[in-house]
Amino acid sequence: MYVARWFVDLGYLGICLAAWPRLVCAVRPRWSSPWTPWKEHPASSAEELQKALTAVLTEANADEIVEAEAGDAEAQEQEHKLRELAAGIKKSWQSTSAHACYQQLGHVITNLTQRCEGLRPAADWLLDYHEPALPTKTCAESVIDIFAEGRALVETLLVSRHQVAALKVLDKKTLRRYQALSFLRSWLVDLTRTPNHAMMWTGFWDGDPHNRTTKAKLFEFAKETDHATVHPDSFLGQVINQAQDIDACYADAQTNKLASNMWAMASMSFVLGMREKAQGTVISLVNKELEGERSLSQSVLSAHEIPTVGLAAWGLGFWSPRVVLVDLMGTCDRTSPALQKQLFARLPSWAKSMKHWSPQAFAIRSRLRWQCLDCSGACSLDNALAEHVEKLVKAKATQDRKDQELREAMNPRREALAAAGLGSQDLNFAQELVKALRKRRDFDKAFRVMERTFALRRELLDRQRKVLAGVAAPRRPTGQRLVPQLLLEKADPSAPDWLGNTALTLAATKGFLGAVEALVQAGAEVEASNENGFTALICAALNGHLEVVEALLKAGAQLEARSKDGLTALIRAADSGHLKVVETLLKAGAQLEARDEHDCTALTWAAENGRQAVVEALLKVRAEVETRSKDGRTALMNAADNGHLEVVEALLKAGAEVETREEHGRTALIRAAFEGHVAVVEALLKVGAEVEIRDKGGATALMRAAMKGHLAVVEDLLKAGAKVDACDKKGKTAVFYAEVGGHQQIANILRKDLAAQ
């Protein structure tokens, strides 16, 4: 074997010498490197893994995408039995006659409960405003949750806070599981903390007769590479280790389920801890055969840990570690493909649950890379291997720093906030919750959320000010000049920060055309999107950067890519009033009638915000005037509601229907009267709007204007023939509405008019 290698290397040298002096051999010949007892397999690049995941997601059929689950009654009965079993173990585990498994499980349950109570955890605060109210979680219940439904709770990670804030989680079981998971995350992840730089995974068996791979060597290897093993460096690892890894519980079917649920939750907690630390490299040591006794395929590493890495990287998104698999059996050719398959195992159901995400878009949410080292025979867990692995770790850390520098060149302030973990998610979710509560007409809770929002905003702004102290604002020339050099130094143009923003999306947001062009030329992923689903094209369109939009379209950016709430680049540009961008997108073939999640189009958004020039441009290309949102609103109603007279006139000229009603039965006239937009009311009356038309409560435009105290509108409606003696469904007249609103002057005018009639 060594002779063959020697000849190959001589051949390499011969090629270099023959090309001299035209070619300089920049790479040192392999034969001059010191011989190593391990074999380093070619790494799987981020692009290769993304392609593989795309294929998995594309090929998955409905049965594969949605994991089969027992019927509700059967599942509830099974969970109930596991809860009873876990509760019974908690009471009896210290008995001298207790089964070994019960002693192990009881030890874990008791220790976790005690530690939880000292941490004062809480479930997601968004749940406080749901109806019916969920019972308050306790630590004792939370620990039982781990053993009774751990696997199901891990899958509940795919329920987004966006859904909870929008009050869209209608299934009580799902909402209860979300509560259980959020409570668990608030304390269990904390128990995975270690003093070391990173965490190391192992599919390990201390049974090597040649003494190459003992646990003592494993721990020393971890120490040399500045990693911690699960045991004994974290509190959670210590507790499980002291319970002998629950090894007495696998023979019985029921206790095996308890153990499996525990490992699912433990793995999730360790991986989430790694993700929160933005751990750059995940090292997995494998010392098991794929099949047979103590098989790798049945190990915790394969069944729980690696799949959860996939969930954290792609499902939660924007974590891009390098996975280094060290195979101590020398079987990388078998173990590496098998574990890579497990990396994707839980992702089809997750990707399917996300709105407006194609398999390709989902696959680029992470830049995870994979590499395998064969370490068998003369290779062992010694200093030489530790030094080599440490070089790989340091190389990834250097790469991460370069990627961060590239994003900083585009927006140093945004990158500083991202690195500090300071986003505005809580504020966004609070605002979404307020909207949902108002729609349900639960104004008391909406007001309480608003009060909480003010406190959240003050806290966030205070923390942001401290982080941004001394951080310069982005400067166009300086930032763009740095890009070519950083790309030359192999900075990854597609590497995302923890919110999913890449150098390209940041450059597009700021309108840095030169940087955008350089990043695209360097292979930046044009369709990469942040946590809100904003691609570079959507970011550029939203901010009106026409030249950047044109450059991205030239690079093949997808016109119909959508944000999480279904907004396209065209809708965003129309909403913001960027006429030239709208015209460019339309010319490129953007769908004129594309709808967001509320069924609003570019026209309805532009009308709502009074973007007259954009509305006229959209009408010119025959945008549908009578398009309705989910609550029945048209562009005319939106414009009337917000008092945009010029837009109202343009829509009326285009043939907008005046008497169209929304879900509450209100017309454009009633909405304009309610808001007190005199000029709009006059314009609608001029084209023959029906004065006596009524909403679902039987109220007319006159009643709504009287209640709000809009005197000029009341006078215009009276001139148009509005009836003062008309009654709503409860027999109340406009006079009553005026008095209820506290507008006595209007009440007197109405009485006078009634007397004159």
From TrEMBL:
On whether Metal-binding is a keyword of this UniProt record, the answer is no
Which keywords does this chain's UniProt record carry? ANK repeat, Repeat
Under the heading InterPro entries, the entry gives:
Ankyrin_rpt, Ankyrin_rpt-contain_sf, Dendritic_Spine_Reg/Scaffold
ANK repeat start-end pairs:
499-531, 532-564, 565-597, 598-630, 631-663, 664-696, 697-729
Name of protein: ANKRD50 protein
Which species is the source of this protein? Symbiodinium natans
